[in-house]
Amino acid sequence: MKSISKADLQHDIESIAKIPIISNILNAVCRITGMGFSAVARVTDLHWIACATNDEIGFGLGPGDELKLETTICHEIRQHRNAVVIDHVSEDSDWKNHHTPKIYGLESYISVPIILSNGDFFGTLCAIDPNPANIKQKHILDTFHLFAELIATHLNVVDDLSVAEAKMQEQAKEAELREQFIAMLGHDLRNPVTAISNAVELQLRGKMDERNLRLAKIIQDATLRTRGLIDNILDFASGKLGSGIKLDFNNPADLETTLKQVITEFRLASPEVPIALKIAIDDAVKADHKRIAQLFSNLLGNAISHGTKGKPVEVEAKSSKHTGLEISVTNVGEPIDELTLKHLFKPFSRGKIRPGQEGLGLGLFIASEIAKAHHGAIEVRSSDSKIRFTFKIPHHST
User: Fold this and answer.
1) 6-165 adopts what CATH topology?
2) I want to staple 101 with a disulfide (CB 3.0 to 4.6 A). Which of 13, 89, 247, 283 is the partner?
3) pLDDT digits over 286-326, tens only?
4) What is the CATH number of domain 178-393?
């Protein structure tokens, strides 16, 4: 049998101390029995330790004090798990020669086991007195059993709370480490991609033959998609840790300029897809322009990837005091079936894909999370020939 450590015993004493009604129970035990000492004892295969006491006769035991296990009746109760009630030791043939009453000068004794919900024996609720007492009564024993069950229930709750608190602390530490990892990962991944992107842009400004120009544009397209994937992965990981999409309203450029930069990147990366643009942003909308650009990039990339090859993608962005901000992206393509529509904004949901459309299926999910962070939403309409995604946020909504 595994022995209980000192740390575990101290934990049990502290657990009893956390139960606010213990002192009331011990006081009530003395009142209903007329006895002068009551206690909650932790009883193991090696120890008898007082967890809480009510001493009105100067017995001399307080919380944390220990009796030699073999000198107690509780040692026997731990083995048979039955209550022991003695009115008058000297006149009780079963107990008058027992060593415990002789050692401690007892004439009356009552003790009931405290059994936890998992069946483990915790200890006893007991009372003693040097004088006889009329305690062999059903209502007294029933009350003791009720108190013992109440103590066991509270111990289970205290233990569950301790486990939950320890688990929360562990999760908080893990979350902090993972947040640090995400931050380092983002930095280490973005740096080489940015270097590749800058290098290929410099190449494109120079003179190149048709073959090298085509290769440079392939690299440029790959870096654009890689940047988007990195952003989506990091945002997804961060969101799953509970921090969600964070917004920063200190924008270095106006929204129209930011959106046009996104379109320029896609026109360079996918020159075979015409992008028709209509912008009428005539009112300042409180928004994180970098996040709006990320949302817009995900919608535009989705439209180009899933649209009919060579067919134009239509982009319209407008804002006003009455309608707020509205950005729509429309492409020609196969209609989206109802089942796919239901799961379109869930992570890793991609619907039907063609060769060259590979991805993690996080783009639309991240876009919807950015919309929610702005107290907005993304709507999708799919007809026989066109698919339209519309992002809306109300005026000064955040």
Assistant:
1) Beta-Lactamase (3.30.450)
2) 89
3) 888 988 988 999 899 989 988 988 899 999 999 887 778 99
4) 3.30.565.10
